[in-house]
Amino acid sequence: MLNIVIFGPPGSGKGTQSEAIIEKYGLSHISTGEILRAEIKAGSDIGIIAASYIDRGELVPDSVIIEMLDQKLNRLNNSAGVIFDGFPRTVAQARALKEMLARRNQTIEVMLNLEVNKEELIARLLKRGETSGRSDDNLETITKRIEVYERDTAPVIDFYKAEGLYRGVCGVGSVDRIFERISEALDICIA
Q: How far apart are CA 44 and CA 173, in angstroms?
């Protein structure tokens, strides 16, 4: 199985690039953001809790995310692998993912980090907010989300570097050019 973590700050293009990776490599997609948005839209208990954190630009607690992810993994059958988009966001989540996969006799093959500068991230997210109507794409919340990423999420990079699974990919340029860089990195890993 080809299990990939796609990583990067908010607005780095994880969702867009995940779609291309899924199409080329035939992987299943687990996006914690999509799962959370579905729970919020449904008005579930977990969705109400998640919304309270997301609206403040904060991370949803690990225990909530890990439980949701474990349930999602249990529902996947006959998959060629999974691309994890938006997870793990903390070192504790990275450890939990390693344990969840180990129980299934699986591992992460590579962590792809989309590297994008802060100014570009803010511009992308503001533009997305204009077109998508997402409540968390305003300057105040974007700035907070990037600060939370730098403080709480960026340390996950060191976890995957220590595991020997880290691959940095320049996330600036056309969508196609970024995907070419990702494909080059993946093809080396799975060769």
A: 38
Classify residue 180 as exposed, middle or buried by CB count within 10 Å of its CB (0-12, 13-18, 19+): middle
Peptide bond into 155 cis (omega under 30): no
Q: For 89-107, how does the pLDDT look when each residue is reduced to its tens digit (9 = 90+)?
A: 889 999 999 999 999 999 9
Q: DSSP of 46-86, one letter per residue?
A: HHHHHHHHHTTTPPPPHHHHHHHHHHHHHH--S-S-EEEES
CA gyration radius for the chain? 16
**61 phi-psi bin (left φ>0, alpha ψ -120 to 50, beta other):** beta
What are the residue numbers of the active site? 14, 89, 128, 134, 145
Phi, psi (5° rounding) for residue 82?
A: -135, 140
DSSP string, 169-188: EE--S-HHHHHHHHHHHHHH
> Which pLDDT score, from 0 to 100, does residue 189 have?
81
DSSP states of 12-50: SSHHHHHHHHHHHHT-EEEEHHHHHHHHHHHT-HHHHHH
What span, in angstroms and rounded, lies between the C-alpha atoms of 72 and 89?
17
List, in sequence order, every residue forming a beta bridge with 114; answer none if it has no partner. 169
Which structural domains are found in the chain, ordered by start? Answer: 4-190 (3.40.50.300)
What are the pLDDT digits (tens) for 113-164? Answer: 999 999 999 999 999 888 887 777 889 999 998 998 999 889 999 999 999 9
